[in-house]
UniProtKB/TrEMBL annotation, chain A:
Protein name: Sugar ABC transporter permease
Keyword Protein biosynthesis attached: no
Residue span, ABC transmembrane type-1 domain: 99-289
InterPro entries: MetI-like, MetI-like_sf
From TrEMBL, chain B:
Transmembrane segments: 12-33, 45-65, 103-123, 135-155, 194-216, 237-262, 297-317
One protein family per Pfam: BPD_transp_1
SUPFAM superfamilies for this protein: MalF N-terminal region-like, MetI-like
Record flagged with keyword rRNA-binding: no
Family: Belongs to the binding-protein-dependent transport system permease family.
Domain of life: Bacteria
Protein name: ABC transporter permease
InterPro entries (alphabetical): MetI-like, MetI-like_sf, UgpAE/MalFG_permease
Entry-linked CDD domains: TM_PBP2
Membrane topology: Multi-pass membrane protein
Length: 304, 325
């Protein structure tokens, strides 16, 4: 299954072995300047769009409207007014509120599935009960269900339960959608723990509860981190679930940014600053926790 | 606690309450579990699995089955309409366009993103500053589809073709530099769909590069040395050593991107909202089911989406089985 790849290809970007790979051999024989040029062209193509908008977000509104961002280098005028505008009330954007909503939506949506999935993964890995394999396969298979398939009945359900328009809709939806992947990932990890460790604890008279807390939880940290970071970014970056369930008071920053492209589509001074405000969190996470991030991302790539 | 929070302190309080509630549930489960010592695992396992089974049944399994049922109902989910919704997806010219666009997306994105990712992985392999070079390509993967779309909307920005008006979008500026007329890039179909696809490629290439780079580094040295002693050309090395060795990773990357692309929503929603003939199934689902309120038809679109995902997953599993055998 696709999700097995990360567990074998995990240590990406880590220590590079000093051996020749076929790719390196192929590259060496290609005339090296051309290879470097091609790499640089791709790198520039991939960076310019973001860079252009970043520069734009620091240019005065009047300049943004009249000239391209590249003229900044012949006429460098830096202002923070665009950022002040998206946080201020005058423009009606109020990104600070939506930023807070994003945090409020995201934190429980990470913590809740992490705890529930750890318990379930432990049961699957170290307990015997009838129907275990079947139940595990069903949960595993649920990973590929597109979210769209669940949204209309869930919307009705939340209305009937009186939860419509509250944070509970997104918390419950995101937590539920996260479970199959979380259980699968954590189960794989728990399985790797040597059974002698568990047996030793059992002989010492430890029950399932203390084995879980004293033996497994400390060992699980890397897997919890990988999944936690993946889920954090998935929820932070989500648009579909948020648009479906949240009203104006509790919607996250992605919804507000998406709305701005419709209502303030030409207000580039607001859009550019707004986009970067929404990117601050994921990019920071990416830069600081790159290793866990890549691992979690590869594992969760079929989700949703 | 279960109402709409409006002030900052209300919101924070509700968040803490939610976390505490779930912590209490888990505490209760663990407390009860600690009463059962020794003997059978069954009772403890049932306790540990109960919350997960309840949530998945109520939040995923049941809604999924219900959506299949609703896809045979009308807009208000009152009357049974047989296969009318599905017939509309196939016969309505507007929906055919949606299917055509989805087909373009799924056909182009995986191969383009994987091709670029593979090329880049080979080019920067063992190069100085490899980690930095990779981070540049990978970064788009970490931001939201909405932010990525805003970034590219600015690339595609159009200003009318008048002597006193300058272009502010990069693409139109380049067109003008080469003596062309600026284009309303996001209006002309089907060009606009391909411009939206470019954003997805921009996002996904980093994913392809990361997985393939790891696979390349895992190729055993002796194979490479043997090939070199046989005097294999660089192209031969790529064609007969690298590609066969990383074949399983290639399949994973292609199918994963294809599945992600099938479900693409935020790019289309943010860039055009599906206007100018750019809609795809996932976006059409949202406009029909949530925005317009045609629930039955939306359900049918969701089912089609699910049905389209299945063959890709099956192909993926069969390829992996074969490579393991």
């Amino acid at each position: 299954m696709t999700t097995e790849a990360p567990l074998t290809t995990a240590p990406v970007g880590g220590a590079v072995k000093k051996v020749t790979t076929p790719a390196a051999a192929a590259k060496k024989k290609l005339s090296s300047p051309w290879a470097s040029l091609a790499a640089i062209v791709i790198a520039v193509l991939w960076t310019v769009p973001t860079f252009g908008l970043l520069v734009t977000s620091f240019r005065p509104e009047a300049d943004i409207k009249k000239t391209g961002w590249w003229t900044f280098f012949s006429n460098p005028l830096v202002t923070f007014e665009n950022y002040e505008a998206v946080f201020g009330a005058e423009e009606g954007v109020n990104l600070a509120d939506y930023f807070l909503n994003s945090l409020i939506i995201t934190i429980p949506s990470v913590i809740i599935p992490l705890f529930l999935a750890s318990l379930a993964a432990y049961a699957f890995a170290w307990m015997n009960f009838p129907g275990k394999n079947l139940l595990f396969i069903v949960i595993f298979a649920l990973q590929i269900v597109p979210l769209q398939v669940t949204l209309i009945p869930l919307l009705t359900f939340f209305v009937d339960a009186g939860l419509a328009g509250t944070f509970w809709t997104v918390w419950l939806a995101h937590s539920t959608f996260a479970l199959p992947l979380a259980i699968y990932l954590l189960h794989n990890f728990i399985k790797e723990v040597p059974s002698s460790l568990i047996e030793a604890a059992r002989i010492d008279g430890a029950g399932h509860v203390s084995i879980f807390f004293r033996v497994l939880l400390p060992l699980l940290t890397p897997a919890l981190a990988a999944f936690g970071i993946f889920q954090f970014l998935w929820v932070w970056n989500d648009l579909l679930v948020a648009l479906t369930f949240t009203g104006p008071q509790i919607s996250p920053i992605t919804v507000q940014l998406s709305n701005m492209t419709g209502t303030r589509g030409t207000a580039w001074y607001l859009l550019s600053a707004g986009a970067f405000v929404s990117m601050v969190v994921p990019v920071t996470v990416f830069l600081l926790l790159q290793r866990y991030f890549v691992r979690g991302l590869l594992a969760g790539s079929v989700k949703g | 606690m279960f109402t709409t929070a409006s002030t900052t302190s209300d919101k924070l309080l509700q968040m803490v309450a939610a976390i505490l509630l779930f912590a209490a549930i888990i505490g209760l489960i663990l407390f009860i579990a600690s009463r059962f010592t020794g003997k059978s695992d069954r009772a403890v396992a049932a306790l540990y699995l109960a919350p997960v089974v309840v949530m998945l049944s109520v939040g995923l399994l049941y809604p999924g089955l219900r959506t299949v049922y609703q896809s045979f109902l009308d807009a208000s989910l009152q009357n049974f309409v047989g296969f009318d919704n599905y017939q509309r997806i196939i016969e309505d010219p507007e929906q055919r366009l949606v299917l055509r666009n989805t087909f373009f997306w799924v056909l182009v994105t995986p191969f383009a993103a994987t091709g670029i990712g593979l090329l880049y992985a080979i080019l920067v392999d063992k190069a100085r500053g490899e980690a930095f070079a990779k981070a540049l390509i990978f970064l788009p993967m970490s931001i939201s589809g909405v932010a990525a779309t805003v970034i590219w909307k600015f690339m595609y920005e159009y200003r009318p073709d008048q002597s006193n008006i300058k272009q502010i979008g990069v693409i139109n500026q380049i067109i003008v530099l080469f003596g062309g007329k600026p284009q309303q890039l996001l209006i002309d179909s089907p060009l606009n769909t391909f411009l939206l696809i470019a954003i997805m490629i921009w996002i996904q290439a980093g994913f392809a590069m990361t997985v393939l780079s790891a696979a390349i580094k895992a190729i055993p040295d002796d194979i490479v040395e043997a090939a070199r002693l046989d005097g294999v050309t660089p192209w031969g090395m790529f064609r007969f050593v690298t590609v066969p060795a990383i074949r399983p990773a290639l399949v994973v990357v292609l199918t994963t991107i294809a599945i992600g692309t099938l479900k693409v929503f935020d790019i289309v929603q943010t860039m055009t909202g599906g206007r100018f003939d750019t809609s795809v199934i996932a976006n059409e689902f949202y406009s029909q089911a949530i925005r317009t309120g045609d629930r039955g038809f939306g359900a049918a679109l969701a089912v089609v989406l699910f049905v389209l995902v299945i063959p890709i997953v099956v192909y993926n599993i069969r390829q992996l089985r074969r490579s393991e055998a």
